[in-house]
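User: Before I run my own analysis I want an independent prediction to cross-check against. Here's the chain; please return only the structure tokens and, at the end, one sentence I can use as a sanity check.
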Amino acid sequence: MIYSIGHGNKNFEYFLNELNSFKIQYLIDIRTNPYSKYNSQYNREILKSNLQHADIIYVYMGANLGGLPADPSCYNADGKVNYNIIKEKEFFQAGLQRLINAYKKHLAVVLMCSETKPEECHRSKLIGEELLKNNIQVQHIIEVNKTKDQSIVITGNLDLFTTDLVLTSRKKYS
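Assistant: Structure tokens:
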């Protein structure tokens, strides 16, 4: 099963309880920059160490699956990240294939980013949608023993007057 989670401002003990409630084996960090200005417990080295003590394997994949790629062609004229462009890039496809392989091996994997709300994060707008095209349903962890299905989360990204998905970042970055 592939899950997703956002760390937000959660204390680490609660975050770990969320992971344990779904028997997570691997945490895939998909933040482009795996550091938190306000929550140092989610900085890459500290997080990796704390997860190791909890028997969860930390894997960094922000270079492949991060929401803020270094490639300037991934941004639109407004400076927003264009997920329709990213999904075609070789670096993203390589990361996506690793997730598909993990799914086929029946590994309990969680994709982690900082954004708490999955409907506002690239883990649903980009990764969740691409996995869905491969018949892999992502379950977004929203609290202990509670998830939201990708198909429910993504409906929050539909434009009010059309059925087109909003497949860009909320913020401008370039």
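Sanity check: The mean pLDDT is 91.
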